[in-house]
Specification:
50% of the residues lie in helices and 14% in strands. It has 296 residues and is an alpha/beta fold. The protein has a 7-stranded mixed β-sheet with strand order 2-1-3-4-7-8-9, with helices on both faces. A two-stranded antiparallel sheet has the order 5-6.
């Protein structure tokens, strides 16, 4: 019998996940979005969620808790929850695994899915790679089987905190690579900047409770390179447009999470020169070219 999958959030990544699953016809897919124009014939949550074996939350971090609260009343105990949000809840400074642990019904199984999965590439049929972070290898096995024969390849991690932090940090630092692109830095210079970014990400993750191994793997380094160098990446676009217009025209997880990362680090944030440069540019309005040039 086909699995039932509900995808909350019909944005780029939600629709890409839906297409990847539909292409192999292994599950019944129900897309749902608060904006009914995105899914004109969507069924009500009260009808689709009680059937669901898997519920994907493809929503930004800043609305995750609200979205979970709306869905939770209809969840059945066996449903596996999968979050693709890559940010920090601003009000509480909690990562998405912490938010899910609080907002979901007690005992509800959940996982984070994070890694290089550019939505436009998935829709075009290209491969994506996701790290499934969960406390249960059984949950991972179920998710891995769901994606079997699709263009999304999964791997397991028990380092839930590390994967959550990797997702946050790669978005923050991807903005710097977008800025470098906007400044027309050479490939050599951008590679140097990426190396500096991954070094800081690794050190910050360890301070905040993650592991170096996770940061240097698919969820950290892999996702940073995909996000930082892809023209499709919102965080890359934000950095590029910031140079061209002097303004932040898009809302993205990288900008939204920057101040939260600084707060979590406290005084230690001053030890990270690239992070401090980003704070100067994004929060204090410093000139992007001058701020990054000082790093060299």
């Amino acid at each position: 019998m086909d699995k039932k999958v509900v995808i909350i959030g019909a944005g780029e990544i939600g629709t890409a996940i839906a297409k990847s699953l539909k292409d192999v016809n292994t599950a019944d897919i129900f897309l749902w979005d608060k904006d009914t124009l995105k899914v004109p014939e969507q069924k009500p949550l009260s009808e689709i969620v009680p059937q669901a074996d898997f519920v994907f939350f493809c929503v930004p971090s800043w609305i995750m808790r609200v979205a979970v609260a709306e869905v939770s009343q209809y969840l059945i105990p066996k449903a596996i929850i999968i979050s693709l949000a890559k940010g920090i809840e601003v009000e509480t400074l909690k990562t998405m695994n912490e938010v899910l642990g609080e907002a979901l019904p007690k005992g509800q199984k959940f996982a984070l899915l994070s890694g290089p999965m550019i939505a436009e590439e998935l829709v075009a049929g290209a491969r994506g790679f996701g790290v499934v972070a969960t406390a249960s290898e059984e949950v991972y096995s179920s998710i891995n089987n769901l994606f079997k024969n699709t263009n999304i390849f999964t791997e397991y991690s028990a380092d839930i905190r590390g994967v959550a932090l990797s997702a946050v940090l790669k978005n923050v630092y991807a903005v710097s690579l977008g800025i470098a692109d906007g400044l027309k830095w050479s490939g050599n210079a951008k590679s140097w900047l990426a190396a500096k970014a991954i070094k800081e990400m690794s050190e910050i993750s360890e301070i905040l409770g993650g592991t170096k191994e996770t940061i240097l793997g698919t969820a950290g380094l892999g996702d940073l390179l995909a996000t930082g160098f892809s023209e499709h990446s919102r965080n890359h676009q934000i950095g590029d447009e910031l140079v061209k217009t002097g303004k932040i025209l898009l809302k993205g997880e990288g900008v939204a999470s920057l101040n939260s990362v600084l707060k979590l680090l406290g005084e230690k944030s001053k030890d990270f020169v690239l992070l401090s440069a980003l704070a100067g540019i994004i929060i204090n309005g410093e000139d992007a070219k001058s701020a990054l040039e000082k790093l060299r």
